Amino acid sequence: MSSTSPDPEFTGVVRWIDRRLPIFTMMHKEYKAFPVPKNLNYFWSFGALASITLIVMIATGIILAMQYQPNTALAFDSVERIMRDVNYGWLIRYIHMNGASMFFIVVYIHIFRGLYYGSYKEPRELLWILGVIILVLMMGAAFMGYVLPWGQMSLWGATVITNLFSAFPLVGEDLVTLLWGGFSVDNPTLNRFFALHYLLPFVILGVVVLHVAALHIPGSNNPTGIEPKGPQDTVNFHPFMTSKDMIGIGFYLLLFAALVFFAPNFLGHPDNYIPANPQVTPPHIVPEWYFLPYYAILRSFTDDWWVFLVVFSWWGVDAKLAGVLAMFGSLVVLALVPWLDTSRVKSARYRPIYKWAVALFVINFLILGWVGGKEAEEPYVTIAQLSTIYYFLHFLVFMPVIGWIERPKPLPSSISQSVLSPAE
Amino acid sequence: MSDAQNATSEGASEEKEGGDRRDFLGMLTNATLAVGGVAFVWPLIDSMNPSQDVLALASIEQDISALEPGQAITVTWRGKAVFIRRRTPEEIAEAEAVALEDLIDPQTDAERVQNPEYLIMVGVCTHLGCIPLGQKDGDSKGEFGGWFCPCHGSHYDTSGRIRKGPAPTNLPVPDYEFIEEGVVRIG
Amino acid sequence: MLTSVKTLSTALGLALAATLAWAGPASAAKAPPPPSQNWSFEGVFGKFDRAAKQRGFQVYTEVCASCHGLRLMSYRNLSALGYTDDEIKAYAAQFEVQDGPDEFGEMFFRPAEPKDRFVEPFANAREAAAANGGAVPPDLTLMTKARKNGADYLYALLTGYRDEAPEGFELSDTQYYNDFYPGHAIAMAPPLWPDGVEYADGTPATVEQQARDLTTFLSWTAEPEMEERKSMGHAVILFILFFIVVAYFNKRRLWAQLH
Has the ipTM of the complex gone over 0.95? Predict the structure, then answer.
């Protein structure tokens, strides 16, 4: 791929710096002249949206950390002091709180886009795995951040999730005690969660840098899945792709602002406005919405479920551990997608069967999220179990098998050709 | 730079007038982004200013009816020490007798007190922020009988004015008022 | 191209809609959902009815305050209800807060000042429980945020008492039957009575009126920033819409050069 603009000529101070440390050349190469396929649709803006969200979260988070007190006796009231007495404190906290939800909305769509257009395929496997690592780190950061206000859901969510680790044989109980720094979720736990919640976003930032670096080696995938064949297939990142991203950013900010200003607690749980009480468990503990699909997978494993009996019980794994393994496994299979998909065609646009498989996968993921928020009773348990089966079937069976049996549609010879005469 | 700019508007040669309109739209987009960025950053910065609960504590009321002439108390206001001294007639006379040209930061004693008997000022050395000695009986009061800052040797007189040493200005007088007999509100 | 984008957008649109619609907390207990009421503070343009807020503050002071605290509120916050500094000072001075130590090292009580947080009715949860037959009256500052459909729930609870529990429902001596309380057996006696308070503005003090005013007041204590938040939201939304328009024309103009 070649750039469509010549190397820049710098003058003055910029040139002096650039000769010694070529950051301006680097910025020009990676963010201005960087060639991107000219047929990208708006789903390719979600990476930029995720980056913006990360920056917003770090900026508001640093400011909140200046006012927050990581102590069980003070945490709840310090958050309310932010809401009531700190200048614009309510705004900053609501941005941070809803920013977590916006981050997951954006990242999930980013992932679905990758699944649909085969963005994980050779030569982008590492790029994909780095993305899955970012998702896992985000989950850790979000989980620990939710504990900090020290409301009822903070305490009991933390209790339930940390107790998952007790499922591991032999070391489980000791591991949980280590996580807690005591015999229940208490002050030491809150303190370390705060320290880690401050650390993780910078780790995420580091992996994002690697993610972007790995992206800039092969360049972006595109809706045809055919690599650009020359300058006629690409445009400069700036100003063309940036001007397009701006529109996406506008609509994204519109949704973000609507949440922050008009429904700031819509995605939250009322119980978290009740101070944490170690003696009273809320009647219905649910994680934040973005964890619900995984929570549903976790809860599917009961000791009378045939999948559990067939797959796990005969090698001595109990239902609790099976649920935990399945939950972590759901992320592992996501990371293995580059090797589970056996088709040589990248984009689902030319894959008549896989296209519908992805759509069904997304719908199934939503169903998992929906049952994850329901109480553990019929018919939700059965629905959750069927959805869990489907989740793993999609990755472990459908992906490889469809790749073998499917007859892809004829591919255009280049991006330019597909633009001139659309395939469908 | 100009080469790079030409490159951004490549293909625009076909219509010159269109290029101008793009430049305007591009500038407008960037300007809107800049305004939005500032609007986002300002609340973050302003949140570091004193919050409402801190401001609510910014004025204090102090009962000074028990002070005898020659006695002093130190109270805390906005996290800083405030000296309240009921001066003796000799101290008042000494403060009023000083000629303005002898002062580093010329100010008459009358400008520094509402009631000459009570001297109220922020007890933070104007050099680098230490608390001067002179409130307690055994303290060194410096060469001018007022206060002495041990950190870098600034001497203040009985009106709290800087007379010798590195401090540039007199000890500041906060806003205060005597709201009733024996009660002063500072701030 | 269009079909594939459409397939994906439909799926993603469904995803978003479903998540937003379903992610809300599942209903807590067996009580029926509270009927939806019309509130002055609802909606994108809603504001607190100031007169209702003041009347609700009166109901809180005369009825609730002996058992329920507002520990996150400061007396100075009452200026938002329209009270002057002197009125707030006089109101605060009715309460005593512990301060000290004085010069002898003793803790002492002084009248509360505007800067102080609302004085709580009980020294601690143990005292509160002992004085109320074992049930701790919850703090009310965040009550409308701490329940699903908080304002509707609070109103329904305050007006939802029944004189007698339905046939077969067991209540202990210290419990009362309420249609909307989870589990129905509530330890709080019916707090509101017709003309239980006398409103200065002459509004008839029915139970419904008192419940409505109190709910408005407590919605304000839960979200004192609401009016500022919404009006800032209007400006921000308009600004973003302007940005979208500008960005759209900028993009269209730029991309037109490519063809």
Answer: no
